[in-house]
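Sample entry was shown:
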Amino acid sequence: MSLGGSFLKTLLIGLAGLANVGLILLFAAGYASAFLPPAWFWWTWLPASLLPFWAAGLLLATAIHLLRGRWGYVALHAGLLALFLTRASLPWPSPPTSPDAASVLTVMSFNYTPFDRSVDQRPLLRNELGALADTHAPDLIAMQSIRVFQRRGQLAFSDQLDTLATAGYHAEPEQNEASYLDTRVPLFQRSGPVLHQEPIVLPSQEDIERHVMRSELEWRGQPIVVYNVHLRSFERSHALNLLARGRYRMAFRELVAVYRRDVLQRTHEARELRALLDEESQPTLLVGDLNASPFNWEYRHVRGTWLDPAAALGGNWRFTWHTRFPLARIDHVLASSHWQPHAMQVDTTRISDHYPLIVSLYLREDT
C-alpha cells in the first residue's frame, strides 16, 4: 500500500473512531438527561429528544463492529442498546383485554398549527378536520395552539374549527348570556355534561399567552378530570431572523440563550403541573403538547407514577412532531392509575406541523 493510501486509511479509521465516541457521548447525555438536575444539565434536552436516533446509530455501529470482529465494541454498544430498550417500549400488540365498546374512552390530542392559513386553504382545512373527526370519532378532542371564543352562549372558532361544531363537538356547555370562554387549549366533547371547567395560569406561564384548561366531566356516570396543556416551546424566531441577516455570532448567542431560558422555564411549568395533578383523586387524564419527548426530564417529572398508554402500546416509536421530518413524540396522553390502555395510533394528516395522537382507555374495574 502506498504512503498516501496508508495515510488515508489511518485518517478514515480516526474519523470513524471520533464519530463512534461522539455517538456514545450523545447517547449517554440523552439517556441521563431525565435523571439529571435541569438547572445544570439544561443543555441535554436536545440529545434526550433525539435519543431514538442515537440508538439507531448505535445499532448500525454494532453491526459494523460485529462484521469486523471487534467484540469489545460489540459488547459496549449492545449494553447501551439494552439500556435504551428499558426506557423505550417495544411496539407490542394491543393488550388481550377487550372491553365493551361503550366503556372505551377515546381521546385525541392535536396541536393544530396549519402551515397555510390563507382563504384559499380554508375549505381543505375544514374537510381534513371533518374527516379526522369522522374517521376516529374520539369522545374528546384536546387541541392546542388555536383560539376559541365564547360570548353570550355562542362559540367563535379560528382556523376552520367550526367543522367540529358541525360534527357534533362542543367546547363548552350552553350557559347563560354572561358566559365567556377564551382559550388556546380548548377541549371538545361529543356528549356528556361538563360539570366544571376553569383555565389555570401556572406561575411560570404568566409571561406567555398560554394556560392549562382543567375540565371536570362525566363519563359513564363517573366523574373524571381532564387537563389540556401546552407547555413552553423553543421560541427561536428572533435568532432565525438574525441568522437570515447574516449576523451569525449574534444568532448563535441568541439561540443558546433562548434554548437555555425556555428549557429552564419549561421545567418550572412541569413542577407546577405535577403539583396540580398530585391533588387529584378522581380518574384523571392529562392531554396535550409537553414539548418534551418520553426521554426528557419534563416528561418524566410530569408523568411521575402515572400511566402513558401510548408508550405501553409501543407509541414511543411513533413520532408526532414534525410532520415534514418526524423527530419525536412530544404530544401525550397520561393517565392516573384508574385507567387501563386499550389502543393508540398516530394519524398522518399533514394539515399541521403535528400529527394527531389518538389513545383509547377504559376505567379499571376496581375504580
Q: What stands out?
A: The CA atoms of residues 228 and 287 lie 5 Å apart.
